User: Fold these one by one.
Assistant:
Number 1:
Amino acid sequence: MQPGASRAVDVGTEAEARELAALRAGDEAAFLALVTRNHGPMVRLATTFVRSRGVAEEVVQETWIGVLKGLHQFEGRCSLRAWIYRILVNCAKSRAVREVRSVPMSALGRVDDEDGPAVPAERFRGESERWAGHWSEPPEPWPDARVESGEIAALVAAALETLPEAQRTVMSLRDVDGWEADEVCALLGITEGNQRVLLHRARSKVRAFVEEKVGREGRPS
């Protein structure tokens, strides 16, 4: 038995427990599946810290080396995914320092008061109204044909690239990769309130970007 294989691991699901056991046993297919599933999201997150996609790819490779070296010391105090991404963030931060482009994690928690949402305030309910902050003028649904063709997805991807780094990171993790709010807060070291503000501003800007391209009623602008 490999060292650490008998250690109790609270991984949350039987599927993850089986995956972890296979990885610890040296199952190459399991490791390849793990890499394939996470490569894109990991590169996307790494680009928040480093200067180019090429460097981000190197950071991801360094992360996987760290995963292989530390796998048998993983104690299951968080999910396997969270553990891997924390290694990624640490590798990315170290690489950013070497690349003279350090972006401190504390910056992700700062919310610039001048950086307001891109969607006009009148489209939300006022503080004195019931459901304050919710849509008063909801977004129109986009035409199914455009959604099915991938046009909207392409526009959303383009819009993400225009966002400030903190907003792009939070929205990518939440809406693209499906992370829960508490997972994002733990990974990035930010408060739940800051996470919520960053996500709201990112979503409003992406919505405004797409609406500008396709029109509020789905017509070209």
Number 2:
Amino acid sequence: MRPFELTAPTTVEDALGSAGTFLAGGTTLVDLMKLDVLTPRHVLDINGLPLHGIDTSDGLRFGALERMADVAAYPGVYPAISRALLLSASQQLRNMASIGGNLLQRTRCSYYRDVTMPCNRRVPGSGCPAINGANRMHAVLGTSDACVATHASDVAVALVAFDAEVELSDSDGTRTVALNDFYREPGSTPEVENDLRPGELITEVRVPRLDWAANSTYVKVRDRQSYEFALCSAAVALDVQDGQIVDARVAAGGVATVPWRLRAVEAALRGKAATEESFADAAAIAGEGARPLSANGFKPALLRRTIVRALLELTEGNGR
């Protein structure tokens, strides 16, 4: 780790008026600093800022510094969001990691984290060795010739499914951006991962009220049961009335360069009977546009099966 200056602002105004890299839980930043992937000269410890609070009275609102474990356990948090948090990392890390920091975590691509290797995200123009290298964990959707790294966050997938927004603040004021628009596919500029501007800070996460969000879940398929990133995941919610699907929300992780909202699958589910056959028919289009690599050609099929499994979790035993 390189030498750096550490300060701890106590007000949001002081933090936004200082140049540096923000530190919350540190579960990503500190790791990358140890690897020399990130080498900030000035680190701002923002844990003393008043960016806390959870409100479930009308939709959901989370202060950006709320810890993942606390949000997951809070009454009224939609099941898909809670489950996505509980399936993230270990309990110790969930106790440390903040919601805002989780949404900004960097890819776990091994080439990005190895400073002896090229990586277009880390050094623009240096190349993407994952395209022809070890790529089993990499993306098949939203990729480009410059980058095929998957997005690492579990809870971002569930939040995208529910049309979440992030409040972003800087010294000039505050703006709100839909989380689905916040993340950027790599294209020719994979080093630009999101819409966060220099000096901006996520201050709050908001999820609109959805009266049927209680019928939601998050399924994560991975190589081992705990402390592992997703090969594929699905956040789903269903509004089922008299055996018919009135509305649906579906988003996927582990298969794309950003949290991947599957609006076409949602449309294919609406108006159909809540049956395994209908689920499979809708999920069949989930992998459209996929670009499998040499070692992850299984992912489009795994995505379809994961969506069906998640939808069945919501309907089996519930009089579907």
Number 3:
Amino acid sequence: MQRSAIVKSLSLASVVLSLMGVGAPSALAATTTPAVNQTASTVPVKPTTPPANYGDIHKTLVPLAGTVNTRDLGGYTTADGKWQVRSHSLLRSDQLVGLTAEDIQKLTTDFKITSVIDLRTPGQVKGKPDKALPGAKNTNISVLGPHAYTDSGSDGEFYNQRLAFGHPAVVGYHKFLNMVLANPQATLYHCTSGKDRTGIATVLLLSIMGVSRNTIIADYMQSNQVGKKVERAWLMEYYKEVLQNYGSMEAYITECLEFSPAQQEQLRAKLLVSTDGKNTPYPAAQKPVVPGNNTGNSGNGGAGNVTNDNHQNDNSGTNQNDGTNTPNNVTSGGQAAQPSKPTNTNGGTHKPGKKKVVKIVSTKKMRTTYKYRLKGNKVWFKDAHLQKTKGHTPKHSKKKWQLIKQEKVKINGKAATYFQVKDRAGHKAWLVKSAILNFK
């Protein structure tokens, strides 16, 4: 009886102490992290302790009162350890709506930012416009197009469908890379939280620099340390699709984003210095002289000095003076360019100087519910009739594609049949008839 009374007294005392906030925390309190306020006007979130595999965000974080995820890419080393990204040359960030006067002073004086690239949608920009940086040009490039909605089944598919192969992303990241190359000073780029759209932009830049994939993944994951959730699986799904479709990040950047190998070399020369303490600039590549090919200077800091291989005569409507040409391999309908009725033009697989006569004999839209299995390692094209190679189907293709269009084309009088196919993530490509196996 006495023992029962003691237990009841202890229980009541425990309840009282809990109500007073005294004593050991509950399991819920121990496992729940403070919610992150998404507004930039509040006190910045202090970075959490880094996971062992992803490094310390303190090494790259730029402390600002009005942002929580502004980081300097300076110091990241190439895979061979010989070169590193210049400090104070590339800043990734979340939105700049909450910048204070001190923040603005720091970015303009210490970092000398002369170009701000805003990757948000027009509606996001209008709702929370950036605070202006004196002397810096602000450019909006929405890599998600007009809206930031997600129309896929998972975050990983969102990365593929919208950020890897979506038309606004292909065009937007093409322009983004050219702008970074053309800017002689430091560039700051950002989206809303500085993790997804900005994360992929960083993947592209660091890939071009020759930074190892593990380091790139670690940088991507560090957004978690300031309360901006990302998952490794999202980025790995992005890598998987890019590598399946193009074989390498370099090929994806070269062929899909149409940022040429020569431009990539120029960007390395602009952004890399030696790691031996001497800060020796990365050697600029010698510009090859091609007989009969006038590449000329376009006044864009080198971005326009190189023509895209085998695309000189495409009707792309590009402006060679601003270094932000739209890739020729995409249209608003998706990843692959839709066929049109072209005039005589140079293709990508014939000898220079010869004309290719192309005639579309017939076009048929397919509304079938059948799915089509593609043969592995078959060439696919940017468009049906000019046969500019875009990539290859996976070597051991197990994907099912939907057939959406058929075209009969005559090229120099020789007839051929092409099919446009689409996978479940919305990626489109043209293939010759022999590359497709169909089944119900």
